[in-house]
Amino acid sequence: SKAEMRHTCRGTINLATANITVEDSCNFVISNGGAQTYHLKASSEVERQRWVTALELAKAKAVKMLEESDDSGDESVSQTDKTELQSTLRTLSSKVEDLSTCNDLIAKHGTALQRSLSELETLRLPAESTEKIKQVNERATLFRITSNAMINVSPLPGARGGRPRSSPPTALTGRCPQACRDFLMLAQTHSKKWQKSLQHERDQRIRLEETLEQLAKQHNHLERAFRGATVLPAGTAGSGGSAKDPCCPAKGDLSDEDEENEFFDAPENIAALETMGHNPALTLPLLPSRRTGSNISGTSSDISLEEQYKHQVEDTKKEKRTRIPYKPNYSLNLWSIMKNCIGKELSKIPMPVNFNEPLSMLQRLTEDLEYHELLDRAAKCESSLEQLCYVAAFTVSSYSTTVFRTSKPFNPLLGETYELDRLEESGYRSLCEQVSHHPPAAAHHADSKHGWTLRQEIKITSKFRGKYLSIMPLGTIHCVFHASGNHYTWKKVTTTVHNIIVGKLWIDQSGEIEIVNHKTGDKCNLKFVPYSYFSRDVARKVTGEVTDPTGKVHFLLLGTWDEKMDCYKVASGSGDNGAEARQRAHEAEDSRVLLWKRNPLPKYAENMYYFSELALTLNAPESGTAPTDSRRRPDQRLMENGRWDEANAEKQRLEEKQRLSRKRREAEAARATEDGKERAGGAPEPPRPHGAHPVSVPPGTPYDPYKPLWFERKKDPVTQELAHVYRGGYWESKEKQDWTQCPDIF
Question: Model's pTM, two decimal places?
Answer without folding.
Answer: 0.58
